[in-house]
Amino acid sequence: MTEQDLIELGFEKDVIEDSESQNGFDYYYYKKDFYEGLTFLSHGSDEIIDDNWIIYNPDWLDIEIKDIEVLKELINVFSKIKG
């Protein structure tokens, strides 16, 4: 899925400057909060190849979402659940 897909799905861009990370470069990632305890994150921009963004949840590290249709379905379900 592309960066534009994430923007259209309501993900927010979070920029991390080198002064904060001290890793030698600025980067950014996308996040979408549904409610406390449920957040989807993208990999950092420094890890993205050919605009193929990957989404994960920090508590489900073994699961990566690479398909835009699967992500849309999950967003639809989680948006209906009240936390």
Give me some keywords for this one.
five-stranded antiparallel sheet, 83 residues, single chain, alpha+beta, 5 strands, globular, 28% helix
Short description:
The protein has 83 residues and is of the alpha+beta class. The chain has helices spanning 3-8, 18-21, 68-80; strands at residues 12-16, 27-35, 38-42, 55-56, 64-65.
Q: How would you characterize the overall build of this protein?
A:
By secondary structure, this protein is of the alpha+beta class. It has one domain (3-80). Helix content is 28%, strand content 28%. It has helices spanning 3-8, 18-21, 68-80; strands spanning 12-16, 27-35, 38-42, 55-56, 64-65. It has a 5-stranded antiparallel beta sheet with strand order 1-2-3-4-5.
Topology at a glance:
Layout: H1 3-8, E1 12-16, H2 18-21, E2 27-35, E3 38-42, E4 55-56, E5 64-65, H3 68-80
Antiparallel strand pairs: 1-2, 2-3, 3-4, 4-5
Largest sheet properties: 5 strands, antiparallel
Radius of gyration equals 13 Å
Coarse morphology: globular
Question: How many independent structural domains?
Answer: 1
Helix count from the secondary structure assignment: 3
Task: Please list the strands of the largest sheet in the order they lie side by side.
Answer: 1-2-3-4-5
Query: What is the total tally of β strands?
Result: 5
Helix amount:
25-40%
Strand content: 25-35%
Low-confidence stretches: none
Structural category: alpha+beta
Distance between the termini: 27 Å
Instruction: Say what oligomer this is.
Output: single chain
Q: Kindly report the average pLDDT value.
A: 91
SSE topology string: HEHEEEEH
